[in-house]
Write a structure and sequence with these properties.
Strand order of the largest sheet of chain B: 1-2
Largest sheet of chain B: 2 strands, antiparallel
Largest sheet of chain A: none
Number of strands of chain B: 2
Distance between the termini of chain B: 69 Å
Mean pLDDT of chain B: 90
Shape of chain A: elongated
Number of helices of chain B: 21
Oligomer: heterodimer
Shape of chain B: globular
CATH class of chain A: Mainly Alpha
CATH architecture of chain A: Up-down Bundle
CATH superfamily of chain A: Cytochrome c oxidase, subunit III, four-helix bundle
Mean pLDDT of chain A: 93
Number of domains of chain A: 1
CATH architecture of the largest domain in chain B: Up-down Bundle
Chain lengths: 221, 657
């Protein structure tokens, strides 16, 4: 549980209540991020199930017919790489802001944002230039079905990151180093940090998903 | 001439004084249902045009035969326009542009009056009432479809509807009931009561909670609009390949069901996090009301099972629009894939419907037995057991589908196993009834009716889980009678118990008890009179979803139809009672009419803004009826330092005391 600047003794009922719900909000951010990953896992699981089910069934020999031209390996690798690097950058600069370096995080987060958006853009390009018809085979269907979903979720993650960058702007750099003088400021910093940690966990999860998808769709199909 | 040395006041945006609130916009410019409708219309037109534009460039889409893409994009952008019109995107856009987000209490949605119920409100109590009214409307609409179905079945040969219209009615009835009634309890009672029952002033994610409600009218209207597009001929299950070959009404089905899937994920997400993180000091897991346990278990099912449903609906849509081949066997897909995806959600869905009902009746029976709930931990364990096991039974729906026969015994066993935790919940009820001086109030009557009905539904379910029985009765009215006993006999009776029990809390108004008793007895008698004979009809071989049947079954079918009309009449009695009591008579009931120990009954009815004057400290469990020396359930005005000690972990003298 994150420590707050509240002291148990001498607090007014209003301050007690503010502290209690602030603490609850921090925990809710942590719990919500993990729960969202659980829900996403089951959502992605539908596609993973479809992948292995259709692959093992190989209905009419059309899971991956020899005439099918697969997706561009270079594009898939680049997209996956951009997302992984973006998540790695975000994870690295998270440590910087924990050490009190707001500006370093802002720069790193901007890099992570640009890399993530580049991956999304490249994914859109790839889907618009597929070398196969979506219904050409079982593999083609799962590929064409999965990646738009992933794209939308990755885009939403990038919107979340953009919001965090904007939220960080009005917070004074010193607030990440020293305890802010008022509860309001302290709570704002802690909520931002909680949201940032939650985002980083989710973005890393999405990066891991990108790697698994890359293996399934580009390497072992 | 004197010089004014006063510094110039800093003006806010628009020339406002510092600290002054923004001037109120005229009502027609404020986000509410009218702007949502406008947004939906604009969104549909844009989406339809976009679909035609994209489709015309998509050479392999046979536009002459199908216009699914414009319809689907029309629906999707209509939903985007709908929620944009409600103002759902306002706060995210403020955050994206670095502008401050108004705190909840200052939000326009906190306005009083009837108008707040037509807005994107962040007050969990408003959302609960929105859900309550919405769910009653959806239920009655779907019930009218049932009346039409039974009217058609009055005669084996004379027809009111064509065969295709009949199937459309069956599909609309089944889908509307199964899809929208997923939120029948979580929506109204879960959102309204769970925060109060755990001693919280708020929910974890009010925006997500509000969005979960506002997606339901969109899903309802989209599903309803299917009738204008030729309906869908595959019932509520949407089996492929029929669902990917049917006319455009199937688009409505897939979009609406997918949308409702998203809604229940969001609703469950908020409930779980709220229960885990927002419990008042002293509200240990061992003191959690059974209703909250049931909401938690149901929400877990919602959050984990519904994403798979959304995935399945999405695959139907892509098969129908961009022509993927998930469910087309000849192109490398498989129609069995759909069945697996659907029932991975579909069977937990049964418990999404059943568990809240058990939660309601478990909450009610100790109050009217004036005894502690027998086997509290057993009941909680039963709910957790049902939740876990429900993910491992889905293939019993595929026993007759050509499934590998070696898989049948496994899923037969898991299905039979789930009767054990369900039985535990029954055991708890029987133990509570034992030697109790029961008060036969209207909520208690509905609770007792629920146990009676669900017993028949449950036992026939265990019977059907056996492969030989299932193979014999699959697709017959026997199965239909079974699940109506569990869902209508279980959930709807429990819902009615909840309405009669908690409406004084939610609205400060008590429903007329005399009319309530008439409602219960007519509903109980005609429910059993409708569905009990259908077991016999099914055993005699009458199939579901077919509008003709053997002439020797006409008498019993007529009995069922007339009973069904009377059952509809009993629901009408409820609607009349609801409208009479809440709009016309308005008999105030502001205290604790049932002498309940529940935390929700320790505050005024309806609860004030913020639910509690101060964060309560829970002192004991909610079911200590008749226990000598039992402490009060909570201290609503705890001494300073106790709440702070709860979140800092530092003991204080007050907390120790």
């Amino acid at each position: 549980m994150t420590q707050t600047s509240a002291e148990p003794a001498g607090l007014s009922p209003e301050a007690e209540e503010a502290g209690f719900y602030h603490e609850a909000a921090l925990n809710a951010t942590w719990t919500g991020a993990r729960l969202a990953m659980g829900a996403l896992s089951f959502g992605f699981g539908a596609f993973v199930f479809a992948y292995f089910y259709l692959r093992s069934l190989n209905s009419h020999g059309r899971w991956y017919p020899s005439t099918l031209t697969g997706p561009h390996l270079w594009a898939g690798t680049l997209i996956m790489g951009l997302i992984v690097v973006s998540a790695a950058v975000q994870t690295a600069v998270l440590q910087r802001i924990k050490a009190g370096h707001k500006t370093a995080w802002q720069r790193g987060a901007l890099v992570a944002l640009v890399l993530g958006l580049a991956a999304v853009g490249l994914q859109i390009w790839e889907l618009l230039n597929l070398p196969f018809f979506p219904g050409a085979a079982g593999f083609a269907s799962v590929f064409t079905g999965f990646y738009p979903v992933y794209l939308v979720i990755a885009l939403m993650a990038m919107i979340w990151l953009e919001m965090l960058i904007m939220r960080c702007r009005p917070i004074a750099e010193i607030s990440f180093v020293e305890q802010p003088p008022t509860f309001v400021e302290a709570f704002a910093v802690q909520r931002f940090q909680a949201a940032l940690s939650a985002f980083t966990v989710v973005w890393n999860y999405l990066a891991a998903t990108a790697v698994v998808a890359w293996v399934l769709f580009y390497l072992v199909h | 001439m004197a010089i004014d040395i006063q510094p110039e006041k800093v003006k806010g945006p628009g020339g406002r004084e510092p600290g002054a609130s923004r001037p109120a916009r005229p009502w027609w410019l404020r986000p509410a249902i009218h702007t949502a409708v406008a947004g939906a219309v604009i969104g549909y037109v844009v989406g339809h045009w976009l679909g035609n534009f994209l489709g015309s460039n998509y050479q392999q889409l046979p536009l002459s035969d199908s216009s699914d893409l414009p319809i689907v994009l029309g629906y999707l952008l209509a939903v985007v326009g709908w929620i944009a019109g409600l103002g759902v995107f306002n706060d995210p856009l403020r955050q994206m542009t670095g502008r401050p987000v108004p705190v909840e209490e200052e939000d326009a949605s906190a306005a009083a009056g009837l108008a707040r119920y037509f807005r994107y409100s962040l007050d969990h109590k408003v959302v609960g009432i929105q859900y309550l009214v919405g769910m009653i409307i959806y239920f009655c609409t779907a019930g009218l479809f049932a009346m039409a179905i039974r009217a058609e079945l009055l005669s084996p040969a004379y027809h009111i509807f064509s065969s295709s219209t009949y199937v459309e009615l069956v599909g609309e009835h089944g889908t509307m009931m199964m899809m929208l009634m997923s939120s029948l309890v979580v929506g109204p009672f879960g959102n309204y009561l769970v925060p109060i029952m755990i001693g919280s002033k708020r929910v974890a994610f009010p925006r997500i909670e509000a969005l979960s409600f506002w997606l339901t009218p969109a899903a309802f209207l989209i599903l309803f609009s299917s009738l204008m597009l030729g309906g869908f001929p595959f019932g509520w299950t949407g089996y492929a390949p029929l669902s990917i070959q049917a006319t455009q009404g199937a688009d409505s089905y897939a979009v609406a069901f997918g949308l409702m899937g998203i809604s229940i994920i969001l609703a469950g997400f908020n409930i779980i996090v709220t229960v885990i993180c927002y419990r008042a000091p002293g509200m240990r897991w061992s003191r959690l009301p059974m209703f909250v346990w049931s909401m938690l278990a149901t929400s877990v099912l919602m959050v984990l099972a519904a994403p798979v449903l959304v995935g399945g609906m999405y695959m139907i849509i892509t098969d129908r629009t961009v022509q993927t081949a998930f469910f087309a066997d000849q192109l490398g897909g498989s129609s069995y894939l759909y069945q697996n995806l659907f029932w991975f959600f579909g069977h937990p869905e049964v418990y999404i419907l059943a568990l809240p009902g058990f939660g309601i009746v478990s909450e009610i029976i100790p109050v009217f037995c004036r005894k502690p709930l027998f086997g509290y931990k057993t009941a909680a364990a039963g709910m957790i057991g049902v939740t876990v096991l429900s993910f491992f039974v889905w293939q019993h729906h595929l026993f007759d589908s050509g499934l590998n026969p070696d898989m049948r015994p496994l899923f037969m066993l898991t299905t039979e196993l789930i009767s054990i935790p369900t039985g535990l919940i029954y055991l708890v009820a029987m133990g509570t009834f034992w030697k109790a001086k029961i008060r036969f109030t209207v909520p208690m009557l509905f609770a007792l009716g629920m146990y009676f009905n669900f017993l028949i539904g449950g036992i026939s379910g265990v019977f059907l889980s056996d492969v030989p029985a299932d193979t014999t009765e699959h697709g017959s009215f026997f199965v239909m009678a079974h699940f109506h006993y569990t869902i209508m006999g279980g959930l709807i009776f429990a819902f009615m118990a909840g309405v009669y029990y908690w409406l004084p809390k939610m609205m400060g108004i008590k429903l007329n008890q005399t009319i309530g008793k008439i409602h219960f007895w007519t509903m109980f008698i005609f429910f059993n009179s409708t569905f009990l004979p259908l077991f016999a009809v099914g055993l005699a071989g009458q199939p579901r979803r077919v509008f003709e049947y053997a002439s020797n079954l006409q008498t019993i079918n007529d009995w069922v139809s007339i009973s069904a009309f009377c059952l509809g009449g009993s629901i009408l009695i409820f609607v009349i009672n609801f409208v009479w009591s809440t709009v016309i008579a308005r008999e105030r009931e502001e205290g604790n009419p049932w002498q309940s120990r529940g935390l929700e009954w320790q505050v005024a009815s309806p609860p004030p803004p913020g639910n509690f004057a101060r964060i309560p400290v829970v002192l004991s469990g909610p079911y200590e009826y008749g226990t000598p020396g039992a402490p009060p359930v909570a201290d609503l005005n705890p001494p300073a330092g106790v709440v702070a000690a709860a979140f800092t972990g530092a003991p204080t003298a007050a907390a120790e005391a």
